[in-house]
Amino acid sequence: MEYIKILIRGEISQAALFFIEGELMNVIVKNPDQFNSGDTVICLYESQKFETKIIKKQDNNLYLFVPWFEALQDSERRRAARVSYVVEGQVQSGKKYERVRLIDLSIRGIGFSCEKKLLNTELQVISFMIEDVTNHFTIRIQNEQKLDDIYRYGASFIGVSVKDLFYVRRYILNRQLEKLSAMAI
């Protein structure tokens, strides 16, 4: 499990990072009594520092609003923040396999390129490595763009479990924290 430090009223507490989805981050703290809903806290991760707000407190869980989209997004707004992720993979459509190159990913979908035109009317399975683990996600192609001699695809994950998204979430969180450190307070 990843850990993060939280600074509030001059005190630093360690928190276990449970999950992050969009602009919501859930951390688990040992001493929840020092935190209240509505508090503004500073998160410290390695040499990075960013401001968040506690939007909900439940037992030892703090739910923090992290303005990823304001800090990280271009003028283009997506349903979930995407981060660059370039690696080889493959798409399976029925019994046919095609090599693809991943471009970016989010907790809701993936961008990739392929030399061949794929059928975008059916569900497909994309497979790729992240953190030395092979991931398999059922996808639905949402858009296709022809660029010179390749096709660029944007696809949504279909019915993905929290367990299957673990490595994707962790990768995205680490990239977002790296970007935030460049814009440190």
Write out the strand line-up for the largest beta sheet, numbering strands in chain order.
1-2-3-6-5-4
The first-level CATH class name of the largest domain:
Mainly Beta
The CATH homology group name of the largest domain: predicted glycosyltransferase like domains
Mean pLDDT: 84
Number of domains: 2
**C-alpha Rg (nearest Å):** 19 Å
Helix content: 10-25%
Give the overall shape, derived from the CA principal axes.
elongated
Annotation, overall tally of beta strands: 12
The ordered string of helix (H) and strand (E) elements is EEEEEEHEEEEEEH
CATH topology of the largest domain: Thrombin, subunit H
Total number of helices: 2
Report the CATH architecture of the largest domain.
Beta Barrel
In terms of per-residue confidence, which ranges show pLDDT below 50 for 5 or more consecutive residues? Answer: 71-78
* Largest sheet data: 6 strands, antiparallel, barrel
Task: Tell me what the structure shows.
This protein has 185 residues and is mainly β. The protein folds into two domains: 2-71, Trypsin-like serine proteases (Thrombin, subunit H); 83-169, Thrombin, subunit H. It has two helices and twelve strands; from the N terminus they run ββββββαββββββα. The chain has helices at residues 68-72, 162-182; strands at 2-8, 11-21, 24-29, 40-45, 48-58, 61-65, 83-93, 96-105, 109-114, 124-130, 133-147, 150-157. The strands form two sheets. A six-stranded antiparallel barrel has the order 1-2-3-6-5-4. β1 (2-8) and β2 form a beta hairpin. The two termini are 26 Å apart.
